[in-house]
Design brief:
Number of strands of chain A: 0
Oligomer: heterodimer
Order of helices and strands of chain B: HHHHHHEEHHHHH
Radius of gyration of chain B: 18 Å
Mean pLDDT of chain B: 87
Number of domains of chain B: 1
Low-confidence stretches of chain B: none
Largest sheet of chain B: 2 strands, antiparallel
Order of helices and strands of chain A: HHHH
Low-confidence stretches of chain A: none
Number of strands of chain B: 2
Number of helices of chain A: 4
Strand content of chain A: under 5%
Radius of gyration of chain A: 18 Å
Distance between the termini of chain B: 8 Å
Mean pLDDT of chain A: 89
Strand content of chain B: under 5%
Structural class of chain B: mainly alpha
Shape of chain B: globular
Distance between the termini of chain A: 44 Å
Strand order of the largest sheet of chain B: 1-2
Largest interface: A-B, 65 and 68 residues
Number of domains of chain A: 1
Chain lengths: 119, 286
């Protein structure tokens, strides 16, 4: 089945692209902050520069950690994009029940994304 | 929360230690099929004194990477049951979302104890004898949902049927919740649901479970991301290390026929880590 091969390729490309971006960001981050002392002993919540609203300005300022975060977001998006391809695949096979099930799973993830902010 | 072990080191040292540790975790995780998260969380919390919320965030991201990377190969070979996987993802994503929301309200030391318990359980499951026994009993729901399938074996295909769909579905909700709270793929629980409850052949249940981990983890990762659990400085070396380790692991797996002793070694390491996590959790040190 062609769609299976496409999905397999998609997963692989998604993983390696996102890791490449994270590596690039990591090099910038280490070259700037490599000699600072780490402090992860207490959980501080979300830092300003990686907040979704500020992320893109941070990336344009070439902030290493913002670039890493873009790579990680791409990684998280990879299985979600896979779902979209699966839905198209099922619809092409005229298996509308499974196309609907796939869209439902997508809906749950989108719901999770939209309601995960509080707290 | 008191932290008795404050570790002072530079970002560079921290990154290199994590990179090496994550590489080892990815290597062992792919050889045993348990995934890298089991080593990553204790490494971060016990050895490097990192808050457990950052640890579960990094672990979850690495689970997505390894799942997506290895699922690519199995999907191609036609072992993965895509319909079954997607159907059960309804359960795991609902569970993962619930778990990610719950994680904010659960005290850190309790997360550590729960993690240790799941760890012990997974180590036992990994040592259990695997059978590719094929079930041929019919089930109304499985037929309706077209869950029955076949997998390639020795040049031909072996057909199998799925039973107890409702039971497996409920078990998957639990697996999703655990995954959302602990930031692990909970592959062991998924295999129990498919292998034990739904009587799916082992080869199919492991690859389908792996295939599902990415989507399940994405459902809780979108919550983690907005709550700051996913820290770029920690995730970068963890993800790169785990993926490179898993890649090396898959190369070794092709060459060596049996990795039985490795399985016992890894189960032993996991048991020690699990006891450490529970012990430190009970003392409130995590």
């Amino acid at each position: 089945m062609r769609i299976q091969i496409i999905i397999g390729q998609l997963l692989r490309i998604g993983v390696f692209t996102s890791i490449g971006i994270a590596f690039l960001g990591g090099v910038i981050y280490l070259s700037r902050h490599g000699h600072e002392v780490v402090d992860y002993a207490t959980f501080k919540g979300i830092p300003d520069y990686v907040k979704p609203a500020n992320l893109f300005t941070s990336v344009f300022e070439l902030r290493g950690r913002a670039i890493i975060q873009v790579g990680i977001m791409l990684l998280i998006a990879t299985p979600v994009v896979r779902l979209i391809f699966s839905a198209i695949g099922f619809a092409a096979e005229k298996d509308y029940r499974y196309a609907a099930i796939t869209v439902l799973v997508l809906g749950i993830i989108i719901f999770s994304m939209l309601s995960g902010k509080a707290g | 929360m008191q932290h008795e072990r404050i570790v002072l080191m530079t970002v560079l040292t921290f990154t290199l230690i994590l990179l090496a540790g994550a590489y080892a975790a990815g290597l062992l995780g792919s050889l045993t099929g348990l995934g890298g998260g089991f080593v990553v969380i204790p490494l971060l919390t016990l050895a490097l004194g990192v808050d457990i919320h950052y640890a579960i965030g990094a672990s979850l991201v690495s689970a997505i990477a390894t799942s997506s990377g290895s699922a690519a190969a199995y999907v191609k070979e036609g072992i993965t049951n895509m319909r079954l996987g997607i159907f059960l993802e309804i359960a795991t994503t609902i569970g993962a979302f619930t778990g990610a929301i719950l994680a904010a309200f659960i005290p850190a030391h309790f997360i550590a104890i729960l993690f240790g318990t799941v760890l012990i359980f997974s180590a036992i499951i990994s040592l259990k004898k695997k059978s590719n026994e094929v079930n041929l009993k019919k089930s109304y729901l499985a037929e309706k949902l077209k869950l029955d399938g076949q997998f390639p074996e020795g040049g031909g295909f072996i057909a199998y049927r799925v039973i107890n769909v409702a039971g497996g579905f409920c078990m998957m909700i639990v697996a999703g919740i655990i995954s959302g709270i602990l930031g692990i793929g909970s592959g062991a629980l998924k295999v129990v649901a498919m292998d034990g409850v739904m009587r799916i052949p082992f080869k199919v249940s492991t690859t389908t479970s792996n295939f599902m981990i990415g989507v399940t983890a994405a459902a809780s990762a979108v919550v983690y991301l907005q709550r700051g659990y996913i820290d770029p400085g920690i995730c970068m070396p963890v993800v790169i290390g785990v993926v490179l380790g898993a890649l090396s692991g898959s190369k070794i797996l092709v060459r060596t026929a049996s990795a039985a002793w490795l399985k016992y070694l890894f189960a032993g390491i996991i048991l020690i880590l699990a006891i450490q996590m529970i012990y430190n959790g009970l003392l409130g040190r995590i």
